[in-house]
Amino acid sequence: MQALVVGYGTLLARESLALTLGASAAASKRLVPVWIDGYRRLFDVRPPYYRGAAPSAFEAALNLEPAPLARCNGAVFLCSLDELERLDRRERGYERVVVPLRAFESGQPFGRAFAYLAPADSPWVERDPRALAPLPRDLEWARAGALAPGEEFAAQFELTTFLADGCTPLAQAEASERDR
């Protein structure tokens, strides 16, 4: 038996996926670009295992939150039940939920897949982007994975990724940082 999983952050990157599934399994996955309907992608989770020895604002992991009119891109792949269990362990603290998908190119319905989201009442969620910013490694992996399907997919990743407040686009925040 197999399951469909959609990656929207570090699971977009084969290098990151390989840490959980092994290099051979990650390399063999067919990653299909899709839209995740009804969800917003944001850097608003501070898992305790991301905390360094010295406190830092740069400890945010990506998350999806329900937002009826929103959408963000991701990549869907098949995995075995054993691989799904490994992903569950990796994504500890997140819930595995079913989300609706559309094909990235055509926008046609693509079905549903599992995605990992922080529960709404999670103590890990932080809504102040001044207190929580993307963990550089996670941002690097997510961007590398988003670039793999092509420039348009990568551009949409930038446009549909937000800071912890859910309103500030990632690209706008980085432009503001450069201007300071």
Describe this structure in words.
This protein has about 180 residues and is an alpha/beta fold. It has one domain (about 1-180): Hypothetical upf0131 protein ytfp (Roll), CATH 3.10.490.10. The chain has helices at about 15-20, 25-30, 80-90, 135-145, 150-160, 170-180, and strands at about 1-5, 30-45, 60-80, 95-105, 110-115, 135, 160. Strands 1, 2, 3, 4, 5, 6 and 7 form a seven-stranded mixed sheet that branches. A hairpin with a 5-residue loop joins strand 4 and strand 5 (about 110-115). Helix 4 (about 135-145) crosses helix 5. The radius of gyration is 15 Å and the shape is globular. About 40% of the residues are buried.
Number of helical elements: 6
Give the helix/strand class. alpha/beta
Radius of gyration: 15 Å
Q: Can you identify the CATH superfamily?
A: Gamma-glutamyl cyclotransferase-like
**What's the total number of strands?**
7
Sum up the structure in keywords:
180 residues; seven-stranded mixed sheet; 6 helices; globular; disordered C terminus
Short summary of the structure?
The chain has 180 residues and is an alpha/beta fold. It has helices at 14-21, 23-28, 81-90, 136-147, 151-159, 170-179; strands spanning 2-7, 32-45, 58-80, 95-103, 109-117, 133-134, 161-162.
Explain the layout of strands and helices:
Elements: E1 2-7, H1 14-21, H2 23-28, E2 32-45, E3 58-80, H3 81-90, E4 95-103, E5 109-117, E6 133-134, H4 136-147, H5 151-159, E7 161-162, H6 170-179
Parallel strand pairs: 2-7, 3-6
Antiparallel strand pairs: 1-3, 2-3, 2-4, 4-5
